């Protein structure tokens, strides 16, 4: 990728970083760290981020998931998109303090994939791809938010248990409020993940894109594991109506698996319809 | 024009003295009109709360003295001066203004930063103005005092942290539950503290209230007060799993709620959090209960330590508040000085306009044939000249008066232009 097309995302990361610092600073020293600065730098970052994705899309003529880096950037955009809507609907105080740093960290991490030579091998004009990717990305975004909420829950729970009544205690919402939203994000993400996986299965069966032993692909196996962990969560909550610490811990585990499924599998050698550029060139000759 | 305050408060006088001097809603109007009758051309406001009785008086050139107010108190309440005068304090002018601002901003209150005093000051002022006991000075003074209190409360953290056991407990409950509707509050024992806490929770929306007490009648009494349900003390165990908030304050010498019971309850509740408040001494709830997952237990010491921390935090804000008050006192005193010169400036204007009118009348008799349009132009020019001539001196005099010494300028104006008047009480 040309260097100039790289700059917008660095600016985005910088804005997310400022937003993180301000949203954390607001807890400790609200007089200095104005909440609005955090909010507006995030919004500004999100706008440039959106513009950047449009630019990438126009450049390649496809939705911007043509390589690992682009998919990562798109996933981060989805997280913020879901967060902004959720914040508008529920206005849970201090969620940004827990989410924006996660988003910033993911953004910085995504940079390391830039210039990586894994590109997608399947046709991007494919209906199945859209039907597979979009629900899964929005689902993952929703799970990322539920992860932030779990951290928030455990923090507040710890403060209540250990009688730590500092500035963070007063700024965080009630356990019940966090728990409810955590539940909402999981029950929103799960059907989307299911849908994405079902479409993926159809795709792989009808077009044979992962070879005969597609079910041995790491991403497929871990995707199923992710689905199972969230299914277990749902079961615990719906059938046994479980609340509290256990749900929060399991949500964190679920998110770790999401992250591993999304990125970790590439390190394990799973290609999952991505191929090294060098291999592609090699095949041509 | 001077401002005087004479009064006593919870720091200067014991309740036996304060109650003798207190005014109530029935006699405060009488007191105001009696005082005005005795000292005409004054303005006055009486502030009477359970912690203080204060009389604010504004009179021209300080004609009303502290002794006058003291003897008014003595006469009105039919007590002798010796009974209360040693407990009284009195301040004049900027110190009086400072005192009122300090009081209104609740920096002089028993509970630092409580907001009740603000409404009490507002009420005292409204009563006085309804009785037409206030004028230009008192109106400005009290409106400014209320304003300063608002500034102090928004710019500092003086009133932010909770400083009573029950409000702190409710604050904790709010960090566990999003709202109290549909939450069951179980009260074990029937102490006064329990009732206070229950009142707080009820105000915040708790409606399912169950009371268990050794004496069933007492349980019923409390339950009725909060539209709750009284249960037999023996049935306590059955209700534990259903209760979201448990308040315990029995006088039992042993634990009333045990680890096993709560473990069992939380299992039934499937991790739904439980909030337990133990305000009994000796304690009612086994302390090990705090280790159970999703259970939050606080005893009286936990709550008390938060209260003391919050009180400390409030007192740390006092210096910041004091600075705001002092700045506002300076502003007010400058405004007062400006007000002192205003009547003199009005007189000066009237004096000039009178001269102008006199000269115009003389001219009109000379210019008999002048048509109306031209004559209006002449009148307009004369008035405009007078206004232009006076504009600058009036502005400078007001500005100079702000820095103190408004009276000096009044005297100069009077002397220079030969204006003498009988001033009104403003």
What's the SSE blueprint?
The complex is a heterodimer of chains A (285) and B (426).
Chain A: H1 7-28, H2 35-60, H3 68-90, H4 95-111, E1 118-120, H5 127-161, H6 167-171, H7 175-207, H8 218-238, H9 245-267, E2 274-276, H10 277-284
Antiparallel strand pairs in A: 1-2
Helix pairs in contact in A: 1-2, 1-4, 2-3, 3-4, 3-5, 4-5, 5-7, 5-9, 7-8, 8-9
Chain B: E1 2-9, H1 15-21, H2 28-38, E2 42-48, E3 52-59, H3 66-77, H4 81-84, E4 89-92, H5 93-104, H6 116-130, H7 136-155, H8 165-176, E5 184-188, H9 192-203, E6 208-213, H10 216-225, E7 229-232, H11 236-240, E8 245-248, H12 259-269, E9 274-278, E10 295-299, H13 300-316, H14 318-366, H15 372-402, H16 406-417
Parallel strand pairs in B: 5-6, 5-8, 6-7, 8-9, 9-10
Antiparallel strand pairs in B: 1-3, 1-4, 2-3
Helix pairs in contact in B: 5-7, 5-14, 6-7, 7-14, 8-9, 8-13, 14-15, 14-16, 15-16
In short:
Chain A has helices at residues 7-28, 35-60, 68-90, 95-111, 127-161, 167-171, 175-207, 218-238, 245-267, 277-284, and strands at residues 118-120, 274-276.
Uncertain residue ranges of chain B: 422-426
Strand order in space, largest sheet of chain A: 1-2
Portion of residues in beta strands of chain B equals: 5-15%
H and E string of chain A: HHHHEHHHHHEH
Structure description:
The complex is a heterodimer of chains A (285) and B (426). Chain A contains 10 helices and 2 strands. Chain A is mainly α and 285 residues long. Chain A has one domain (3-279). Chain B contains 16 helices and 10 strands. Chain B has helices at 15-21, 28-38, 66-77, 81-84, 93-104, 116-130, 136-155, 165-176, 192-203, 216-225, 236-240, 259-269, 300-316, 318-366, 372-402, 406-417; strands spanning 2-9, 42-48, 52-59, 89-92, 184-188, 208-213, 229-232, 245-248, 274-278, 295-299. A 6-stranded parallel sheet of chain B has the order 7-6-5-8-9-10. In chain B, helix 5 (93-104) crosses helix 7 and helix 8 crosses helix 13 (300-316). Chain B starts with a strand and ends in a 9-residue tail after the last helix. Chain A binds chain B through residues 156, 160-161, 163, 165, 169, 172-177, 180, 240-247, and chain B through 172, 174-178, 270-273, 290, 293-294, 296, 298, 302, 306, 309.
């Amino acid at each position: 990728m040309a260097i100039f097309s790289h700059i917008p995302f660095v600016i985005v990361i910088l804005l997310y970083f400022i937003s993180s610092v301000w949203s954390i600073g607001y807890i400790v020293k609200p007089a200095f760290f104005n909440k609005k600065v955090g909010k507006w730098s995030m919004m500004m970052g999100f706008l440039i981020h959106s513009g950047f994705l449009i630019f990438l899309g126009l450049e390649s003529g496809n939705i911007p998931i043509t390589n690992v880096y682009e998919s990562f950037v798109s996933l981060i955009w989805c997280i913020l998109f879901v967060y902004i809507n959720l914040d508008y609907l529920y206005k849970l105080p201090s969620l940004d303090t827990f989410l924006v740093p996660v988003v910033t960290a993911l953004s910085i991490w995504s940079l390391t994939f830039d210039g990586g030579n894994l590109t997608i091998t399947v046709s991007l004009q494919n209906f199945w791809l859209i039907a597979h990717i979009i629900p899964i990305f929005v689902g993952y975004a929703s799970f990322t938010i539920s992860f932030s909420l779990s951290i928030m829950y455990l923090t507040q729970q710890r403060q209540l248990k250990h009688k730590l009544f500092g500035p963070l205690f007063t700024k965080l919402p009630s356990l019940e409020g966090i728990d409810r939203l955590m539940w909402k994000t999981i029950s929103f993400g799960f059907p989307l993940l299911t849908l994405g996986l079902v479409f993926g299965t159809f795709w792989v069966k009808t077009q044979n894109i992962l070879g005969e032993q597609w079910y041995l692909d790491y991403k497929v196996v871990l995707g199923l594991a992710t689905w199972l962990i969230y299914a277990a969560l749902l079961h615990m909550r719906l059938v046994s109506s479980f609340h509290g610490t256990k749900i929060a811990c399991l949500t964190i585990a679920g998110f770790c698996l999401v992250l591993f499924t999304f990125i970790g599998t590439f390190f394990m050698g799973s290609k999952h319809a991505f191929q090294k550029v060098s291999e592609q060139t090699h095949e041509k000759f | 024009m001077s401002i005087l305050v004479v009064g006593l408060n919870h720091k200067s006088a014991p309740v036996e003295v304060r109650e003798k001097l207190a005014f109530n809603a029935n006699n405060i109007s009488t007191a105001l009109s009696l005082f005005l009758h005795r000292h005409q051309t004054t303005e006055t406001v009486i502030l009477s709360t359970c912690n203080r009785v204060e009389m604010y008086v504004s009179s021209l050139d300080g004609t009303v003295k502290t002794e006058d107010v003291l003897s008014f108190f003595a006469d009105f309440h039919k007590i002798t001066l010796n009974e209360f005068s040693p407990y009284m304090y009195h301040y004049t002018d900027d110190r009086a203004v400072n005192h009122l601002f300090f009081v209104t901003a609740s920096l002089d209150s028993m509970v630092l930063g409580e907001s009740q005093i603000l409404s009490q000051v507002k009420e005292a002022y409204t009563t006085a103005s309804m009785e037409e006991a206030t004028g230009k000075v008192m109106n400005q003074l009290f409106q400014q005092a209320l304003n300063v209190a608002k500034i102090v409360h928004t710019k500092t953290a003086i009133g932010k942290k909770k400083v009573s056991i029950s409000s702190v407990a409710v604050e904790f409950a709010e960090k566990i539950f999003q709202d109290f509707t549909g939450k069951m509050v179980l009260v074990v024992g029937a102490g006064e503290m329990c009732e206070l806490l229950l009142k707080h929770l009820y105000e915040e929306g708790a409606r399912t209230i169950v009371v268990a007490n050794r004496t069933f009648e007492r349980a019923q009494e409390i339950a009725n007060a909060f539209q709750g349900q009284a249960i037999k003390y023996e049935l306590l165990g059955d209700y534990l799993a259903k209760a979201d908030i448990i308040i315990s304050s029995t006088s039992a010498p042993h634990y009333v709620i045990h680890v096993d019971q709560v473990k069992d309850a939380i299992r039934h509740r499937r991790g739904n959090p439980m909030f337990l408040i133990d305000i009994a001494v000796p304690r009612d709830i086994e302390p090990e209960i705090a280790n159970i997952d999703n259970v939050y237990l606080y005893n009286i010491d936990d709550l008390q330590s938060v209260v003391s921390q919050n009180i400390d935090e409030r007192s740390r804000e006092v210096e910041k508040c004091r600075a705001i008050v002092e700045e506002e006192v300076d502003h007010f005193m400058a405004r007062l000085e400006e007000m002192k010169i205003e009547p003199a400036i009005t007189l000066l204007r009237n004096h000039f306009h009178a001269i102008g009118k006199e000269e115009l009348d003389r001219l009109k008799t000379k210019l008999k044939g002048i048509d109306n349009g031209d004559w209006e132009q002449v009148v307009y020019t004369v008035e405009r000249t007078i206004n232009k001539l006076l504009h600058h001196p009036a502005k400078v005099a007001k500005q100079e008066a702000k820095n103190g010494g408004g009276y000096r300028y009044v005297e100069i104006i009077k002397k220079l232009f030969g204006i003498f008047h009988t001033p009104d009480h403003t």
